[in-house]
Amino acid sequence: MFLAAAAAGTVRSAACVKALAACGYTPDDFGTYTEIKDRIGKAKADTEGATVSGQASLADQAKDPRVHERWVAECQSGHIAENSRHQAKRDDPTTAHCSFYDMNEAPCMPHAGNAFNPKTQHGAVLTQDRQTRRDLRGDPGPGKKIGAERERGATRKAIDASLDWGMNDDQDVTQVAKDKRYAAIVALNSKDPKIAAAAKKSDAEFKKAIDAKYKENAKKAAECIESYVDAQWKAMAGKARDAKKDATDQAKAKAAASDAKVAALEGQKGKSAEKQLAQAREEQAAAHAEHAQAKQELKAAEDVDVDACRGEAQVKGKPLTPTAQDATQTENNTE
């Protein structure tokens, strides 16, 4: 529903659906920044802004058919690969390090809570991204390309941080937040006999059953998400290529129209006709130059190496502590 056709199959296979469910996600939880932002808005509307109760037992919470949507409603649209690695200035596509990168088309997933609260899932991912910046700054250093392999590694760490949030006792996560995460997971696995049996015993047994299912599937779920990220990068490149193709077709039509106009004016006599012809020829030259430029840009879009472009990512040298501007941006689903 929310996935581009080119990327849909990566998380909709039976194996991925099962693995993602064990981690509290569905295929519809993966899409572009805009798609996930819209998905969260729809979840809020569908659940009337209700929050997931942290007071009821996990078994009771999981009985609510809307519990997963209520959890999604409390999330922000989070870039799976940190946006600032790929674009120097937010909301300014001209500062993208890769020719076809678009922050609104980049792969995203719901991240619970505010990005600058380290106890939230969004905060855990941001913390991991900041650690990645520290790791990458010395090699290759701020303002330099990190390369596709390092970019993939950084993205995998962020994926693991997303999935692992709230699933380890040593994490500084509130109990209410953990219970919401567990409830969202169990709601997607209510037919699992082990979980169903544990639900009849106690919350402690319930959590043990969920933990076991999560640990069995987390690696596969991460691989499915990685595949989606790869596919969405290709989809971004394809969309940019299609846009260049449309622009080239329009420029070609404009050039043909200018040729026809010049042909119609040639042979006509009189100062007025000569003046019109001179102007038409100027327009013709401009139209053909525009077409030539469009063809050149289309060729570049057709020849683009997606991996190499992804490797254009850079590590910014900005402070690693949140600023007032950061906090404001976070309220607007930035990361």
Number of strands: 3
Order of helices and strands: HHEHHHEHEHHHHHHHH
Shape: elongated
For the biggest β-sheet, the strand order reads 1-3-2
**Spatial gap, N to C terminus:** 24 Å
Report the mean per-residue pLDDT as an integer.
84
Helix content: 55-70%
Number of structurally distinct domains:
1
SS content category: mainly alpha
Global Rg: 25 Å
Q: Uncertain regions: pLDDT < 50 for 5+ in a row? A: 318-335
What count of helical segments does DSSP give? 14
Largest sheet: 3 strands, antiparallel
Overview of this structure, please?
This protein is mainly α. It has one domain. 63% of the residues lie in helices and 4% in strands. The chain is built from 14 helices and three strands. It has helices spanning 5-12, 14-22, 33-46, 58-62, 67-73, 83-86, 121-137, 148-164, 175-187, 193-199, 203-265, 271-303, 306-310, 324-331; strands at residues 31-32, 75-79, 107-112. It has a three-stranded antiparallel beta sheet. Helix 5 (67-73) packs across helix 9, helix 8 crosses helix 11 (203-265) and helix 10 crosses helix 11. The longest helix is centred in the last third of the chain and has 63 residues, at 203-265. It is elongated, with a radius of gyration of 25 Å. The model is unreliable at 318-335 (pLDDT under 50).
